[in-house]
Amino acid sequence: MKTLFVSLSITVFILLTYDGIAQTNTFPASGNVGIGTTNPAVKLDVVGGISIQSNNNLTWGGLYGAGIPTISAATGTGLYFYPTGSTSGSTFSLQNTGASFYTDLSVPGKNFYFGTSANPTRNQLTAGFFRLTASNDVNTLDISSTNTGILFSTNYYSGGSVQPITMQTYGSSNQLCLSTNGNIGLGTASPAVKLDVLGGINIQSNNNLTWGGSYGAGIPTISAATGTGLYFYPTGSTSGSTLSLQNNAASFYTDVSAPGKNIYFGTNTNSTRNQLSAGFFRLTAPNDLNTLDISSTNTGILVSTNYFAGGSAQPITMQTFGNTNQFYLSANSNIGIGTSSPAEKLSVNGNIRTQKIIVTQTGWSDYVFEPDYRLRSLVDVEKFIKKNKHLPDIPTANEVEKKGISVGDNQALLLKKIEELTLYVIDLKKENRLLKKEVNVIKTKIEKKK
C-alpha cells in the first residue's frame, strides 16, 4: 500500500513537473483534463491526435436522454474515419461543405458489408450496387445502377428463386406488388394481368387513361370481372351523369343518363356535331351543315333533315351497299323508289306487285247517263277512229310512253267508253225491236195475200 502511494506520488509529480515546463497540459484534482491545452472545455479535451493500440477500444457510456454520447468536429468540416490506418485506404466520413451535409464511404477495390454477427455479409454496398438480405439469409433485394437505368430486383445476382417485390406503408398490406411473372398489383398480392387494381382508379384533371396496340390479335379491352357491366361517372358521383354498358343476363345494353343535360359526341373541331338528349338524336354531316334528326314525339317518331337545326330541307336517301337511291324522300316530300327525281308523291322506277289497288277518284263517269249528255253518233266515232287511230278521249300510245297514265283517270275514261257502249247497245236494241215489228207487219200482209 505504501509502495502504491509512492508510485502515484511520483507519477503526479512528473506530470505536474511536465505541466509546469510545457504549460500545454492540465490535470487538476477535479474538473476537466486537458492534453495539449490548458483550457479544457470538456472532461477530456485533446489538442492533437489520439492513437489507440491494437486490441484496445474507445468506449463511452451513458443512457439515451439528457446526456447523449457525442462525437463532434470542432472545425465544422466533418469527421473522417480510416479503418486501415491510412488516409489513402478505405474511408468513412461525415462531411460538411457548408451548403450540404453528406456521408462518404470509400472502399477502393472492395465491397462494403453490414449485417449481423451470424452473417456479417448479409447486406452489401458496392459501386452501383446495393443489397438487402432477408432474415432467412436467402432472399435478397438488389438495387443496381446500370448503363440503361436503375434496376430493382429480387435474387437477381444471388441466383435464388425469383420472389415478388411488395411496397406498403405501416399498417397496410399489398399496396404495390410486383409479382414474379411481371404483373403489378395495387391492393392485391396476386395480380392476374399486367396491372391489377383492387379498388378504384382516380385520374386527375387534364390527364388521360390511354392504351395502345393495333386492332388484331391483341385488341385493347376493358372487362368487368363481375359480369354485370361497366359504369362510367363523368361527374365523379353515382347520382350524376352515367354511361354504362350493362349485362342483365337476358340482354346486353348501353345506358346513358345525363339528368337535365344533352350528350354530344363528335370531333375536335366540332365536339357537338352529334347529339343525344331526351327523345332526340342528331347526326351531322362532315360539312357541319346538314343534320339527320330523329326524335320521339307525343304523336310518334320523327325522322327529318335540318328539322331542329334550322337549315334548308335536304333529301333523305336509304340504300344498301353497292346500290343507289333505293329509297329517296325528296325535299318537296315526294318519295322515289329506284329514282332520285320523284315527280309525284310516289314514283317507282320498276315493277309493282300487289293484291289490290284502291284509288279514290273525283269526276267519275256517271255523267254519261245524264239526259243532257251528248253521245257521239257511231258514224262520228267511226270517222274519228279512221282519222286518229284511237278512241275519242283516250290518250295516244306516244302520250302514254312519254307521260305515263293515271290509273284513276284511265279507269274513268274506260268506264266512260263502257257506259257509252252500253247506250249504243240500248239504242241498237231499240232499233232492233222496231225492225222486228216492221218485219212482223210485212209477214202478216204477205200471209193475207196468199
Quick recap of the structure?
This protein has 450 residues and is of the alpha+beta class. The protein has helices at residues 2-22, 378-388, 397-403, 407-449; strands at 25-26, 33-35, 44-46, 78-81, 91-96, 101-106, 112-114, 123-126, 129-133, 140-146, 149-154, 165-167, 176-178, 184-186, 195-197, 229-232, 242-247, 252-257, 263-265, 274-277, 280-284, 291-297, 300-305, 316-318, 327-329, 335-337, 346-348.
Give a written overview of the molecule.
With 450 residues, the chain is α+β, with helices and mostly antiparallel strands. The N terminus is likely disordered. It has a 5-stranded antiparallel beta sheet with strand order 7-8-9-10-11, with no helix packed on it. It has a 5-stranded antiparallel beta sheet with strand order 19-20-21-22-23, with no helix packed on it. The radius of gyration is 57 Å and the shape is rod-shaped. Among the domains are: 49 residues, no CATH class; 26 residues, no CATH class; 52 residues; 37 residues, no CATH class; 85 residues, no CATH class. Strand 7 and strand 8 form a beta hairpin. It has 4 helices and 27 strands.
Strand percentage lies at 25-35%
Helix content: 10-25%
Strand arrangement in the largest pleated sheet: 7-8-9-10-11
Helical stretch tally: 4
- Low-confidence parts, pLDDT < 50 over ≥5 residues? 1-13, 15-21
Distance between the termini: 214 Å
Total strands: the figure is: 27
- Given helix and strand content, the structural type is alpha+beta
Gyration radius from CA atoms, angstroms:
57 Å
